[in-house]
Amino acid sequence: MSIPKDQKHIYDYFIDENGNWFCEGNPVNDWDLFKLLSRSLYRDGNRYFVKCEGEVHPVRVADAPLWVKYVHIELSDTGEVKRVRIELTDGRIEDLRPETLFIKDDSAIYCKATRKNLVARFGRVAYYEFARLLEWSEEEKTYLVRINGRNYSLRRI
């Protein structure tokens, strides 16, 4: 979806390297507006947009458009990781899709989130919660996480 030609104003939205939103250079501090923008975000090709009140606005993204705030780990009776849920900074909670996990620059963990398959970066708290589940695989030369009896490799990008 592109910006309608008859649209009168195009707002300048930006998500910085820490997941903070800005509109026209001003921080988006209003919780309801933040949720609306975050949940309206979509990707078209290599660009991000928000569709809000019938208008479409481009969104510049420094790193990841979504951020994981917390990780909720469910254990089985035997202590194995049964399920991992991620909580995004906009309050959405969903199952982690471990097959989408990857590591970038050897320092950050990411996954795909929401039905729109947007990239989500693990924030500091979520990173440390999740990192304790990781094991190094010398054979694969990457980290693995075991969830519900299955190993998942974290791809390196």
Remind me, CATH topology of the largest domain? duf1285 protein fold
Query: Uncertain runs with pLDDT below 50, 5 residues or more?
Result: none
Order of helices and strands: EEEHEEEEEEEEEHEEEE
Average pLDDT reading? 93
**Strand arrangement in the largest pleated sheet:** 9-8-7-12-11-10-16
Shape: elongated
Number of helices: 2
- CATH hierarchy class name of the largest domain: Mainly Beta
Question: What assembly state would you assign to the polypeptide chains in this entry?
Answer: single chain
Radius of gyration: 17 Å
Percent helix, as a range, is: 10-25%
Give structural notes.
- It is a single chain.
- Helices cover 11% and strands 48% of the residues.
- By secondary structure, it is mainly beta.
- The protein folds into 2 domains: 49 residues, duf1285 like domain (duf1285 like fold); 91 residues, duf1285 protein fold (Roll).
- The strands form 3 sheets. It has a 7-stranded mixed beta sheet with strand order 9-8-7-12-11-10-16. The chain has a 6-stranded mixed beta sheet with strand order 3-2-1-6-5-4.
- The relative contact order is 0.15.
Note the topology:
Blueprint: E1 13-15, E2 21-23, E3 26-27, H1 31-40, E4 41-44, E5 47-52, E6 55-61, E7 66-75, E8 81-88, E9 93-95, E10 102-104, E11 108-113, E12 118-122, H2 124-131, E13 134-137, E14 142-147, E15 150-153, E16 155-156
Parallel strand pairs: 1-6, 7-12, 10-16
Antiparallel strand pairs: 1-2, 2-3, 4-5, 5-6, 7-8, 8-9, 10-11, 11-12, 13-14, 14-15
Concise account of the structure shown:
The protein is mainly beta and 157 residues long. It has helices spanning 31-40, 124-131; strands at 13-15, 21-23, 26-27, 41-44, 47-52, 55-61, 66-75, 81-88, 93-95, 102-104, 108-113, 118-122, 134-137, 142-147, 150-153, 155-156.
